[in-house]
Write a structure and sequence with these properties.
336 residues, alpha/beta, TIM Barrel, 8-stranded parallel beta barrel, 4-stranded antiparallel beta sheet, 10 helices
């Protein structure tokens, strides 16, 4: 249920409504807009009729049912767009944000060189995997905490905020102590224990769409994080599995405008995992800008041919610089 406050509602009236919502067994999620405050009341639907009584409270204009199953992620419950802060970088605002770096952290030298390339090209956030969920148990699984320490050191030297994947609920505390943003990868999009745990974190979360996840299922996964108390969620379209074999996955660019119409959360695109080959990353990135994405996450490696993970889809430095030049040109053209 959504409780819409009157334009002239006082802070005390808003606080009283929040206390009342909690007193009847629901969680209150206020959204303070430019013109008015909207309070989402989320909980067990069996007793939702009691929330209609909120209309009799001072300062309340009306109550409205939330029709979507994803209550907090829905645009019905939140006025305007959510802007997520990753360090000093804002994702979801007017600026198109690029996250770049290697798939996996291999050494301090490799990550530092990747970070310098990312920063020189104009990327605002550094990516690098310390924990790697791999299809084969014999593949490189990541440097784990040692990799996190390298990520933290490189971040300090380059002033780039960082994002890295967490794959186990037990590792959330240690990962968030080193990284600025937690990534939930495609294989864990419906790992509900993990979603709840990052929902209790104070760090923003980058939530990737699963390879066989519908848009509604992606938003329901975001709902787990939001309902646990973490409002800082970024959605990522990274390709879905179809019958096509020419690319690693099929990048569903239609998901970007669809998500933009359904949710207030920022939406970015991962063309690297969608395509599976570096030659397709630049054209897919252009398309992501054109359909209204808030940013990109791309894989960049100083020597992709030597990468221990996903070298084929990683951009070399010169290709990354080309990508960034083209993105700036497209952004300029779209503003005029």
């Amino acid at each position: 249920m959504i409780i819409v406050m009157k334009n002239q509602a006082t802070e005390k009236q808003i606080e009283d409504v929040i206390h009342w919502i909690e007193s009847v067994g629901y969680k209150a999620h206020p959204s303070i807009g430019v013109e008015r405050t909207v309070i989402g009341a989320v909980g067990d639907n069996r007793d939702k009729e009691i929330l209609k009584y909120a209309e009799s409270l001072p300062g309340v204009e009306k109550t409205m049912p939330i029709l979507k199953p994803y209550k907090l992620a829905s645009r019905e419950s939140h006025e305007g767009n959510t802007v997520v802060s990753v360090g000093s970088i804002k994702i979801g605002g007017p600026e198109f944000v690029v996250i770049a770096g290697p798939c996996a952290i291999e050494s301090e030298e490799q990550l530092l060189e990747s970070a310098y390339v990312a920063k020189k090209g104009g990327a605002q956030v550094l990516r690098g995997g310390a924990y790697k969920p791999r299809t084969s148990p014999y593949s490189f699984q990541g440097m784990e905490e040692e990799g996190l320490k390298i990520l933290n050191q490189v971040s300090a030297r380059t002033s780039l905020p960082t994002v890295t994947e967490v794959v186990n609920p037990a590792d959330v505390n240690i990962v968030e102590s080193y990284a600025d943003m937690l990534q939930i990868g495609a294989r864990n999009v419906q790992n509900f224990a993990l979603l709840k745990e990052v929902g209790r974190s104070q760090k923003p979360v980058l939530l990737k769409r699963g390879m066989m996840t519908t848009i509604e299922e992606l938003l329901m996964s975001a709902e787990y994080i939001l309902s646990a108390g973490n409002s800082q969620v970024i959605l990522c379209e990274r390709g879905i599995r179809t019958f096509e074999t020419a690319t690693r996955n099929t990048l569903d660019l239609s998901a970007v405008p669809v998500l933009k119409s359904l949710t207030h959360l920022p939406v970015i695109v991962d063309p690297s995992h969608a395509a599976g080959h570096w030659r397709y990353v630049i054209p897919l990135s252009r398309a992501a800008v054109a359909v209204g994405a808030d940013g990109l996450i791309v894989e960049v490696h100083p020597e992709p041919e030597k990468a221990v993970s996903d070298g084929m889809q990683s951009l070399k430095p010169e290709k990354f610089y080309q990508l960034m030049d083209e993105l700036r040109a497209i952004n300029t053209a779209m503003r005029h």
